[in-house]
Automatic annotation (TrEMBL):
The lineage of its organism: Bacteria, Bacillati, Actinomycetota, Actinomycetes, Mycobacteriales. This is Malate dehydrogenase. InterPro entries: L-lactate/malate_DH (IPR001557), Lactate/malate_DH_C (IPR022383), Lactate/malate_DH_N (IPR001236), Lactate_DH/Glyco_Ohase_4_C (IPR015955), Malate_DH_type2 (IPR010945), NAD(P)-bd_dom_sf (IPR036291). It comes from the Bacteria. PANTHER family: MALATE DEHYDROGENASE.
Length: 325
């Protein structure tokens, strides 16, 4: 273990998600057990004191890989030399709200953070946006960072992906690892499309094992509305599962995966998704880059549901166009 530490920035460090996320990162679950790391915690001024307390607890955990912790309310400081950034800090929705209702409050956070990343982060910076509405917030950050390659910005669809796997595993009485080629397309919203068309279970087509009516009328809405269901039952939005998904996302991006996972990326126009929109695609990862799975033939149902997501993302983009550089 001779290499220099990597620097990982986490925003919203005093919040619920960070309270799970930081412990997983510090344990080495993102870069692996041989990579020492520094944590850089960004909070708003009113919550810097609480973030200091989080940093004290991290220190008390005596993680072998953790070399330094910085707490700050200055984005330029937080992202200085950062190799990875988890943009979590944003208001969560409450009961009865949709994630897009948060745009007005949260959208303004991501332009300045994108600019600070642009001006200060390391050349290999990779960003995952978790704060909702994650796809459009990622678009705002990406548009504000013209010197950073667009494909270094992503938004979290992995929680939706993990929900899609676990709901299906429960239905079929198998393990989540028995599936291949599951994907959640589109927006991290109630319109998202958990798509089983290409999915296999132990090598056999999933669509031959399930009833289409259950798939369309129960499974898809159940996965797509799981965030609202958690808020209803738990009284607060998902936190530990979101942190776990964010770790899965960044781990696979950096360390690679040959298995399909769902990631929201700036579209290159594939599958009829307008170029630039940050949308969920089926991807694999190699040599530190996501690769969209190419050459899939989409049927009418898939095209229709993906088109609904594109319309929603376009209308969110329209609503925030004033926040771009
Ligand atoms: P929380 O309210 O517990 O914590 C948010 C923290 O962000 C607070 O400590 C707040 O002070 C901080 N913050 C606000 N503005 C900031 C800024 N400009 N810079 C730095 N920090 C800032 O919320 P939470 O439960 O941790 O959720 C955070 C966000 O993640 C919410 O928007 C929530 O909806 C979203 N979320 C997304 C997913 C997903 O799958 N994409 C899953 C769960 C939650
Ligand atoms: C989730 O999917 O759990 C998060 O996006 C939180 C929410 O508002 O649903």
């Amino acid at each position: 273990m001779t290499q220099n530490p990597v620097k990982i920035a986490v925003t919203g460090a005093a919040g619920n998600i960070a309270y799970s996320l930081l412990w997983r990162i510090a344990a080495g679950d993102v870069y692996g057990p041989d990579t020492p790391l520094e944590l850089s915690l960004l909070e708003i001024p009113a919550a810097v004191g609480a973030a200091d307390g989080v940093a004290m607890e991290l220190s008390d955990s005596a993680f072998p890989l953790l070399r330094n912790i910085t707490v700050t309310d200055k984005a330029d400081v937080a992202f200085d030399g950062a190799n990875a950034a988890f943009l979590v800090g944003a208001k969560p929705r409450g009961k009865g709200e949709e994630r897009a209702d948060l745009l007005k409050n949260n959208g303004g956070i991501f332009g300045p953070q994108g600019r600070a990343i642009n001006d200060n982060a390391a050349d290999d910076i990779r960003v995952v946006v978790v704060g909702n509405p994650a796809n459009t917030n990622a678009l705002i950050a990406q548009q504000s960072a013209p010197d950073v390659p667009a494909d270094r910005f992503s938004a979290l669809m992995r929680l939706d992906h993990n929900r899609a796997l676990s709901q299906l595993a429960e239905k079929l009485g198998v393990l989540t690892t028995d599936f291949e080629n599951v994907v959640v397309w589109g927006n991290h919203s109630a319109n998202q499309f958990p798509d089983l068309t290409f999915a296999t279970v132990k090598g056999e087509p999933v669509m031959e094992k399930i009833d289409r009516d259950w798939y369309v009328h129960e499974y898809i809405p159940r996965v797509a509305r799981r965030g609202a269901e958690i808020i209803e039952v738990r009284g607060k939005s998902s936190a530990a599962s979101a942190a776990s998904a964010a770790v899965d996302h960044m781990h696979d991006w950096i360390r690679g995966t040959g298995k399909w996972v769902s990631v929201a990326l700036p579209s290159d126009g594939s599958y009829g998704i307008d170029e630039g929109l940050v949308a969920g695609f089926p991807v694999t990862a190699r040599d530190g880059s996501w690769e969209i799975v190419r050459g899939l033939e989409l049927n009418d149902f898939q095209r229709e549901v993906i088109a609904k997501n594109v319309e929603e993302l376009k209308s969110e983009r329209h609503a925030v166009s004033g926040l771009f550089n």
